[in-house]
Design a protein that fits this description.
Number of helices: 13
Shape: globular
Strand content: 15-25%
Number of strands: 16
Distance between the termini: 18 Å
């Protein structure tokens, strides 16, 4: 679990619920957001964290960078604004539904959720237990499957449950009959009940809204199903979550050009602003180096990847570079993986072929604190995973974690 140092999510859960966090439970998005909101005060850094602050006119100056809107200068800049700041706006036909204040209508009138990804699933998971849900989503598993498809029941039970309901709705629409889910023989999740979801969930794959009419705090919508038939439903609100975009509008044009590089014009995602970015906008640069411009780093989803090595490793890499902990004479070239300076006899290609344990050892020998991230193209599903094998290296890895040594403990920088 991605807890922060000094005040873990388990501590927060105990403090807010008056009992210990259950084992093997994945909190929902709202619970995690509450934890992050409480964290600065809990560890005493609230005077260094500024929320709801809009910055503008960030530019490069001779001393480093200038935050023009606040007249703040700094030597290094880390961009962590992500690619999820703005929802893609609904089309004009659906915009009247955005005026509905969800929750004022009856719970019998479902919340209309449009989308097939993680954000749509988060909305459904976070709805009150008494709120019905009408879910419209794209279903083309052979062409463009939902990202929820890769969520295993054991690791992501809530997302897997939503995908099962989507799949069941698609099967029902295809065979025009009653289809039941097989019984799950797993430990129940106190945060989320799939059985309860099935009683208040209606899925419509590849459906399209043809017309709507507002009626007080609710609306009547005409929906064309995948088979061409029309149905009418009454809804109490809309969650249009077909995609998210980030924005780099706070950067001045010259600095934005540095960040995006020569392909910047083609990398910008369609949106309301010419400075909107998606997960693919900076992915190619992040695979080379997270320092996308001199003394300017990107972390988080701006890298185009939200895997653990970017969530933790990106922070450690940026912090190590800023603090000067890298050894400049033994660094790898972020472009081709070859050595600079000292001749150690190990290049990145050789390192990547090692087991994870030996790879960490080799990184430390050649002075690399974080991987240069040029191996993202590899299909890790076909690679062996010796980390899970019981051998002396694995025990050495575990003992180092218990002592607080190494890369993982450094995440608190």
């Amino acid at each position: 679990m991605l807890s922060l140092p000094g005040y873990s999510y388990a501590d927060h859960y105990l403090r807010t619920h008056d009992h210990v966090l259950p084992s093997f439970i994945r909190p929902n998005r709202r619970d995690v957001a509450d934890y992050f909101a409480a964290y600065p005060t809990a560890v005493g850094i609230e005077d260094s964290v500024f929320n709801l602050t809009n910055i503008k006119h960030v530019s490069r100056d001779p001393m480093g960078f200038l935050i023009g809107s606040h007249n703040i200068r700094c030597k290094h800049l880390v961009l962590a604004t992500g690619t999820s700041s703005f929802n893609i706006a609904p089309p004009p036909l659906l915009q009247p539904l955005a005026t509905l204040r969800s929750g004022l209508g009856s719970c019998e009138a479902p919340l209309l959720v449009i989308g097939s990804g993680f954000t749509a699933a988060d909305v459904i998971i976070s709805t009150p237990p008494q709120q019905n849900v009408l879910h419209l989503f794209k279903w083309a598993p052979d062409i463009r499957p939902s990202p929820l498809r890769g969520c295993h029941q054991s690791a992501y039970p809530e997302y897997a449950a939503i995908y099962r309901r989507m799949k069941l709705a698609a099967i029902k629409g295809a065979c025009d009959g009653n289809v039941k889910l097989p019984l799950l023989r797993r430990k129940p999740n106190p945060f989320f009940s799939e059985q309860d979801l099935g009683q208040r969930y209606e899925g419509m794959p590849n459906a399209e809204i043809m017309d709507l009419a507002l009626d007080k705090e609710e609306a009547n919508v005409i929906i064309r199903l995948d088979d061409g038939s029309l149905v009418e439903r009454r809804v109490s609100g809309l969650a249009y979550v077909v995609g998210l975009r980030g924005s780099l509008s706070y950067l001045d044009p010259d600095l934005l050009a540095e960040v995006l590089g020569p392909k910047g014009g083609r990398l910008l995602a369609p949106g309301h602003s010419t400075r909107m970015v998606s997960g693919s906008s900076l992915r190619e640069k992040a695979e080379t180096d997270l320092e996308v411009a001199p003394k300017l780093f990107i972390i988080g989803s701006l890298t185009g990847d939200s895997l653990i090595r970017f969530a933790y490793g990106g922070c450690v890499y940026a912090a190590s570079k800023i603090m000067g902990s890298s050894k400049p004479t033994n660094q790898l070239s972020p472009v081709n993986g070859e050595e600079k300076g000292a001749s150690i006899g190990t290049n990145l290609k050789d390192v990547l072929e090692m087991t994870p344990i030996n790879r960490l050892d080799e990184y430390s020998k050649i002075g690399v604190v974080g991987s240069p991230h040029i191996d993202l193209h590899l299909d890790r599903s076909i690679l062996d995973r010796p980390m899970y094998m019981e051998h002396k290296d694995t025990h050495r890895w575990r003992s180092s974690v218990d002592r607080g040594d190494g890369l993982i403990a450094s995440c608190g920088i």
